[in-house]
């Protein structure tokens, strides 16, 4: 037992040392200290030990857990302190500097706002399995909703994820409830490309599961989020929608900022742009991932990050963002 615990400590330390982001650390913490961790299952064996052994191993467990937590906190401080900029006056001031992309900046803005509301940022995987992309989200094989997301299937039977909603499932499986997470990331669909549809685009998933979560909570989060991102009053509307994984479901549209709501190719002449579908998580989805629906419920949303960047930077055609054409991209000032 002692050797096993020491080995787990060494593995945890190696992963903490190699963590590059706060989300990596969150994952390491859950892996080594979470309810389903190996350390927690070893702790269960304490109950069958003699009193003397309980004392010895009990304090060893506590020490290992405290040491891992300390390492995580120190690493977190180290990561946060690295976000600083230095100025080198000897550098040639005429040289060209790169910059973060429009989408990266918007994604950071949104995750910063959500972090202040108590959300943790997680990352998922771009190559997903059918279970996490569809089935666990209440979209069984032959469900008509699959037609809404034409998919790139890979030869290994995996899919390039069509949305970030798979992270809802992964988060429930890994961390259980209550939980508040968001997950920005790239998605892929076999789309007919036009001014507001790409085959590769970004979404940001948000999910809250707790006791007594209401639609009011969902609307509050949506409103605060958009108010802070746009820094001005932008007209939004909420209308009924349909998603197999939420019930009720809503479509949140924002008034098209390219044409001021008059109608243009970006908004397909409707004056509105679909931005952030959302809804209360369907009980089937919660149950499939092991959440106790007698105790918990929740909401989720899928913000279209690429479209949000278009609205914020007045980019009328989504294709510019993936084009890599710097001359064009520079026309849209970063701020
Ligand atoms: C979904 O992908 C759902 N998973 C969202 C969701 C999450 C609903 C949680 C309920 C609860 P939809 O296919 O509508 O829904 O995409 C969500 C948003 O992503 C759209 O409103 C849009 O802003 C953006 N989006 C979708 N397809 C594209 C595309 N081809 N190009 C650019 N942006 C897109």
Give an account of the 3D structure.
The protein has helices spanning 2-17, 22-33, 38-44, 51-81, 102-116, 130-133, 166-175, 215-230, 283-288, 305-313, 319-323, 326-329; strands at 120-121, 127-128, 159-160, 179-188, 200-210, 236-243, 246-255, 272-274, 278-281, 297-304. It has 2 domains: 2-81; 102-329, Bira Bifunctional Protein, Domain 2 (BirA Bifunctional Protein, domain 2, 2-Layer Sandwich). The relative contact order is 0.11. With 335 residues, it is of the alpha+beta class. It has 12 helices and 10 strands. Helix 2 packs antiparallel against helix 4. The strands form 2 sheets. Strands 1, 4, 5, 6, 7, 8, 9 and 10 form an 8-stranded mixed sheet that branches. The structure holds adenosine-5'-[phenylalaninyl-phosphate]. The site of adenosine-5'-[phenylalaninyl-phosphate] (FA5) has 23 residues, from strand 5, strand 7, strand 9, strand 10 and helix 10.
Produce a short descriptive summary.
The protein has helices at residues 2-17, 22-33, 38-44, 51-81, 102-116, 130-133, 166-175, 215-230, 283-288, 305-313, 319-323, 326-329; strands at 120-121, 127-128, 159-160, 179-188, 200-210, 236-243, 246-255, 272-274, 278-281, 297-304. It is of the alpha+beta class and 335 residues long.
């Amino acid at each position: 037992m002692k050797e096993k615990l020491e080995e787990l400590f060494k593995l945890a330390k190696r992963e903490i040392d190699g963590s590059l982001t706060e989300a990596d650390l969150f994952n390491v913490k859950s892996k080594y200290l979470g309810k389903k961790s190996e350390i927690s299952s070893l702790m269960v064996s304490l109950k069958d030990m003699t009193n003397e052994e309980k004392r010895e191993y009990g304090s060893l467990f506590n020490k290992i857990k405290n040491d891992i937590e300390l390492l995580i906190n120190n690493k977190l401080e180290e990561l946060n302190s690295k976000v600083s900029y230095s100025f080198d006056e000897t550098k040639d001031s005429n040289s060209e500097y790169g910059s973060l992309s429009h989408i990266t900046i918007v994604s950071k803005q949104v995750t910063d706002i959500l972090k202040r509301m108590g959300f943790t940022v997680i990352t998922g995987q771009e190559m997903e399995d059918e279970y996490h992309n569809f089935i666990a989200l209440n979209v069984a094989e032959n469900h008509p909703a699959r037609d809404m997301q034409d998919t790139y299937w890979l030869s290994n039977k995996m899919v390039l994820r069509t949305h970030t909603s798979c992270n809802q499932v992964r988060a429930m499986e890994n961390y259980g409830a209550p939980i508040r997470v968001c997950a920005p990331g790239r998605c892929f669909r076999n789309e007919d490309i036009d001014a507001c549809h790409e085959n590769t685009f970004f979404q940001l998933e948000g999910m809250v599961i707790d006791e007594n979560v209401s639609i009011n909570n969902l609307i509050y989060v949506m409103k605060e989020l958009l108010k802070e991102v746009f820094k001005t009053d932008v007209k939004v509307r909420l209308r009924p929608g349909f998603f197999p994984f939420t019930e009720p479901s809503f479509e949140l549209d924002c008034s098209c900022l390219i044409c001021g709501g008059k109608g243009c190719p970006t908004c397909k002449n409707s004056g509105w742009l679909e931005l952030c579908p959302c809804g209360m998580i369907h009980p089937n989805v919660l149950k499939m991932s092991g959440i106790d629906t007698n105790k918990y419920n929740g909401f989720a949303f899928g913000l279209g990050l690429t479209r949000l960047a278009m609205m914020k930077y007045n980019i009328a055609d989504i294709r510019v963002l993936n084009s890599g054409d710097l001359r064009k991209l520079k026309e849209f000032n970063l701020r």
